[in-house]
Amino acid sequence: MTEPRKQIHLAAHFPGVNNTTVWSDPAAGSHIEFSSFVHLAQTAERAKFDFFFLAEGLRLREQGGKIYDLDVVGRPDTFTVLAALAAVTEHLGLAGTINSTFNEPYEVARQFASLDHLSGGRAAWNVVTSWDAFTGQNFRRGAFLREDQRYTRAESFLSAARGLFDSWRGDEIVADKDGGTFLDDHRAGAFTHRDEHFDITGQFNVPRSPQGRPVILQAGDSDTGREFAAASADAIFSRHSTLEAGKAFYTDVKNRLPRYGRTPDQLLVLPAATFVLGDTDADAHERADVVRRQQVSGQTALRFLEQLWNRDLSAYDPDGPLPGIDPHVGENTISRGRASDRAHRDPIATARQWRELAEAKQLSIRELVIEVSGRQTFIGSAATIAETINDLVQQDASDGFILVPHVTPTGLDEFADTVVPLLQERGVFRTEYTGPTLRDHLGLAVPHPHTTTGGSR
């Protein structure tokens, strides 16, 4: 008997300010006007996507002491945008990235519980940590946590928030002697959480939501991040989108689940993915080359290289060779608020690898940056991309993808109109929503109060 085909999960990422965005495209619009958020969200809902995802930036990035040029549009508040989108969508999940380092459990739990009610059970929380003092300067503590402390606080934060979500259990509705019911004010919402990070006790004031509690997403790729996801998340993002790397990541995180009493279907693996469509595969590859050169201007290439070299490279020609000098090792002072100095643990070794690559392929600075920062995950005709996505999911390299268009807000339209119908024809993607909540879309059960994880159906 043939095994049933896995159903593909798709989500839409509203592009933040990053080096995937093509600002020069005539179709490029605002990243802050509400109409842009509405267009992308409603396109995703029309295509029957699982959810719409917002990243978060708590401070504008800087490079060389100036605001990084792709960040000048700013970052609207996540909860405000998602709450507004709840009013103009009906089924689409609404996922937001909210920091566990510079917030408090009661405040965040109350905001997500409220969003879950407003949306009819469609909220999701991407739990992240913050790693730099630069961001911390915007907050009262004005500092940051060491890497070994960030996840312990995140685990404590999430545990406290779960206690708040679950503090309205149902058994606080008490029957009286006349057959009626009343709310036991001493039991509803009561919570206590004490550990090295939090000492809180009180009563939560938002009743349990339609899906029990928001879906929990996690994006860490480190060993600690993967373990955190295996213990606590309903879905984990991934940057591993090729077959070999995707299967290795998929197998690794799924194999961690049994130690927490969980099964493989209780944690979805969703890599982020970009795409370039064309009438034919050859046409798509031509378009992809144009997009990459639009994404990486000469100025952008120098800025990218500066993040590794930790030096001012503005005097270099982006169409010339790489710098002969080595990166400056130590505190990253050239770029602030970026993950670049975490991504390259050994900048000298990385620079050596890049020089070898540039020499072997005769690449300029700009050409090298295009090569090493390649973003297009899927390139081809609609039929080719549909087949590739399905193959990766059926071979357990992922459970689906979070799609990041390079043009806002219309960049998802073509995918929705051409690729999604082909996946539906294959019987691997829904033609209609089958339930009202995000947990329904993702195949996750409503969690029991006081269970550690989200459960599955």
UniProtKB/TrEMBL annotation:
<feature type="binding site">
    <location>
        <position position="222"/>
    </location>
    <ligand>
        <name>FMN</name>
    </ligand>
</feature>
<dbReference type="InterPro" id="IPR051260">
    <property type="entry name" value="Diverse_substr_monoxygenases"/>
</dbReference>
<feature type="binding site">
    <location>
        <position position="97"/>
    </location>
    <ligand>
        <name>FMN</name>
    </ligand>
</feature>
<dbReference type="InterPro" id="IPR016215">
    <property type="entry name" value="NTA_MOA"/>
</dbReference>
<dbReference type="GO" id="GO:0016705">
    <property type="term" value="F:oxidoreductase activity, acting on paired donors, with incorporation or reduction of molecular oxygen"/>
</dbReference>
<feature type="domain" description="Luciferase-like">
    <location>
        <begin position="25"/>
        <end position="394"/>
    </location>
</feature>
<comment type="similarity">
    <text>Belongs to the NtaA/SnaA/DszA monooxygenase family.</text>
</comment>
<dbReference type="InterPro" id="IPR036661">
    <property type="entry name" value="Luciferase-like_sf"/>
</dbReference>
<dbReference type="GO" id="GO:0004497">
    <property type="term" value="F:monooxygenase activity"/>
</dbReference>
<protein>
    <submittedName>
        <fullName>FMN-dependent oxidoreductase (Nitrilotriacetate monooxygenase family)</fullName>
    </submittedName>
</protein>
<keyword id="KW-0503">Monooxygenase</keyword>
<keyword id="KW-0560">Oxidoreductase</keyword>
<feature type="binding site">
    <location>
        <position position="151"/>
    </location>
    <ligand>
        <name>FMN</name>
    </ligand>
</feature>
<dbReference type="InterPro" id="IPR011251">
    <property type="entry name" value="Luciferase-like_dom"/>
</dbReference>
<dbReference type="Pfam" id="PF00296">
    <property type="entry name" value="Bac_luciferase"/>
</dbReference>
<keyword id="KW-0285">Flavoprotein</keyword>
<keyword id="KW-0288">FMN</keyword>
